[in-house]
């Protein structure tokens, strides 16, 4: 692979991740689709290529040039480190990183490293991946987009019980992880200055399979029932794609966006001391060395 215009999208096998990948490819970027499952990743890769052939936009790329896979389980720190090592072997620089992947777990589950699943995947896995790729992004003065959620506004960081061993709830855990996303984006933007732009965004209520239990399938019926009332994955991906590519967003950093406009955040998300504390805790938990 050459080193022109690369974008890495996590959770690219479905929903907003696949829509984001396709939109960025149409804009001319070569897309590295980061996926957990090779089988589902291959299916998504072929689907993205077919959609790209039907409508390539202004890319000037072939479908084979536009998409490739990177295998990585964000719930395994070893897998994240392996993926980062692979990317360093393949690339000299990275232009765009979209931290899109996310899980909602109806029951308390643990990652391979023993972290509560939602906090482990939605925050810690992305924290480690991002910090390990900062050198590639700095070489290109790249852009990082963290897909958060309006759910952060009801979230709080349970400093004494990050794993929610006492009083787990699906949405409470999710809200904590999304608050962590916003705090992480703000602290990372502060640390990087103008070397790399970092922004968080709220995609809106999007019809995806995030709320479906991966083992039991619980939530499939409800998700299907409510789908007509939600945004499409393409609509949900719009602000993230805009932040990653538009001239208007160039130089903007450390903000939280909704529908291409800066939006308000909760008092907890605006707490600089909490942002720094979360960074230090995350660094310790992941043994990250930015």
* Low-pLDDT segments: 209-227
Integer count of domains: 1
Q: Give a short account of the largest sheet.
A: 8 strands, mixed
CATH architectural arrangement: 3-Layer(aba) Sandwich
Helix/strand order, N-terminal first: EHEHHEHEHEHEHHEEH
Tell me the radius of gyration: 18 Å
What's the total helix number? Answer: 9
Shape, per Cα inertia axes: globular
Gap from first CA to last CA: 25 Å
CATH superfamily, by name, is: NAD(P)-binding Rossmann-like Domain
Number of strands: 8
Mean pLDDT: 91
Estimate percent helicity: 40-55%
Secondary structure category: alpha/beta
Strand content: 5-15%
CATH fold-level assignment: Rossmann fold
* Major sheet strand order: 3-2-1-4-5-6-7-8
Task: Give the C-level CATH assignment.
Answer: Alpha Beta
Oligomer: single chain
Describe the structure.
The protein is α/β, with parallel strands linked by helices and 290 residues long. The protein has one domain: Rossmann fold (3-Layer(aba) Sandwich), CATH 3.40.50. It has nine helices and eight strands. The chain has helices at residues 15-26, 38-54, 63-66, 77-90, 117-139, 170-192, 220-226, 233-245, 272-286; strands spanning 6-10, 30-35, 67-71, 96-99, 143-147, 197-202, 256-258, 261-262. It has an eight-stranded mixed sheet with strand order 3-2-1-4-5-6-7-8, with helices on both faces. The longest helix is centred in the middle third of the chain and has 23 residues, at 117-139. It starts with 5 loop residues before the first strand and ends with a helix. Mean pLDDT is 91; it is low at 209-227.
